[in-house]
Specification:
Blueprint lengths: L16 H19 L9 H9 L5 H8 L3 H13 L3 E5 L7 E5 L1 H21 L5 H31 L1
Antiparallel strand pairs: 1-2
């Protein structure tokens, strides 16, 4: 009901999409600029850091962990391998799968990349309390998983339909 009791007011929902999209676009620009000297694009750093944390991970497992499609992962691996940061070694269990490892150059660049990204994160979380930032991360992860599930469902419909 409206305040005067006449009719029901429509509910208005503000979408987070425009904010997520704008944050993403701005971060892509800033990250690309910050990591340019290492020849690492804004689309590769996340893969580099995950491999650093899980040496020997397969491309398939990396895609699944990051909720990123296999084609995008393969392109990022090609770029990181071409730059000399990552090496692919056939898995002893399944020669069709590659395990991913950092090269010596990869191991040397990871702390530099982390330092640059930490600086950007500090700027981005300016004005947030620790609790607010933690809540932001929790809610962002939940939204990502919700949207990823929808994408998986739609892809399943395409293959089964």
């Amino acid at each position: 009901m409206s305040q005067n009791g006449d009719e029901k007011e429509p509910l208005v929902f503000e979408s987070a999409n425009k904010y997520v999209s704008a944050i993403y676009r701005h971060l892509q620009i800033i990250i690309s600029d910050e990591l340019a000297e290492f020849r690492i694009g804004s689309g590769q750093f996340i893969f580099l850091l995950e491999i650093a944390e899980a040496q020997g991970i397969t491309q398939k497992a990396l895609s699944k962990k990051l909720l990123i499609d296999k084609t995008t992962t393969a392109k990022a691996m090609n770029k990181l391998e071409a730059e000399g940061y990552v090496k692919r070694i056939p898995s002893p269990e399944d020669q069709r799968c590659n395990q991913l490892y950092l090269t010596e150059d990869g191991k040397a660049v990871v702390p530099k990349v982390k330092e640059r990204l930490y600086k950007l994160m500090q700027i981005g979380r300016k004005g947030f309390s620790d609790e607010e930032y933690e809540l932001f991360l929790i809610l962002s992860k939940r939204m990502l998983h919700n949207i990823h599930a929808l994408v998986q469902h739609k892809e399943g419909e395409k293959h089964n339909g």
